[in-house]
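User: tokens in, sequence out, please.
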């Protein structure tokens, strides 16, 4: 193991980690917003939009992120639409993650007993108030484990961003291996970088799940 090589190229991995984490977090936020939008379209059974949401979920969940990125980065320019590498990464992560977040929220909504909604409506609450004050708080609490798992999944999916010429962690590792043939050192730093990103999120997610469970939410 060449420790001098590792020390020399740690700054490259630090910058790549910042880029990977930044794009990953933006993609996650966008996917949560998209998931909420999709699940409310399904919940309120909006005509046409409900069918479009179902098509989106099937398309998103049944195509790899790699293929989606190829379409965004190499396919759209054929139609005159050019998006930067970072833009493609964020849009691709949002497109993939939105469907998973929507399914997580849907499972949370379905866990709320139908009788609660009927009772609230009978007491004179509007449907929007029922959603805001009764259904949504419980649904989010129940959905936390699935949402956290989706976040970790999406952050791991950032490893394919290098295909759109984005200087993320995988791009840096492959570049160093190709230039210097230091496979062990490059991959070791790659593993450590991803552990530094994912382990804190995993620990925080587990703590949040326990806290909600002790508070009486979830299963």
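Assistant: Sequence out:
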């Amino acid at each position: 193991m060449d420790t001098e090589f590792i020390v020399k190229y740690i700054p490259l991995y630090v910058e790549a980690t910042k880029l990977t984490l930044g794009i990953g977090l933006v993609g996650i936020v966008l996917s949560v917003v998209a998931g909420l939008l999709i699940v409310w379209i399904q919940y309120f059974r909006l005509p046409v939009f409900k069918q479009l949401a179902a098509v989106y979920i099937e398309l998103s969940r049944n195509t790899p992120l790699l293929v989606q990125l190829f379409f965004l980065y190499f396919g759209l320019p054929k139609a005159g639409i050019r998006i930067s590498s970072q833009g493609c990464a964020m849009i691709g992560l949002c497109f993939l993650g939105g469907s998973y977040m929507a399914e997580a929220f849907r499972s949370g909504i379905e866990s709320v007993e139908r009788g609660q909604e009927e009772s609230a409506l009978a007491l004179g609450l509007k449907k929007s108030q029922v959603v805001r004050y009764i259904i949504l708080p419980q649904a989010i609490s129940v959905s936390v484990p699935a949402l956290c798992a989706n976040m970790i999944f999406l952050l791991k999916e950032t490893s394919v961003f290098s295909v759109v010429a984005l200087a993320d962690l995988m791009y840096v590792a492959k570049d160093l291996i190709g230039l210097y043939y230091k496979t062990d050192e490059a991959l070791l730093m790659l593993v450590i970088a991803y552990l530094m990103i994912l382990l804190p999120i995993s620990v925080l997610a587990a703590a949040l799940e326990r806290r909600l469970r002790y508070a009486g939410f979830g299963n």
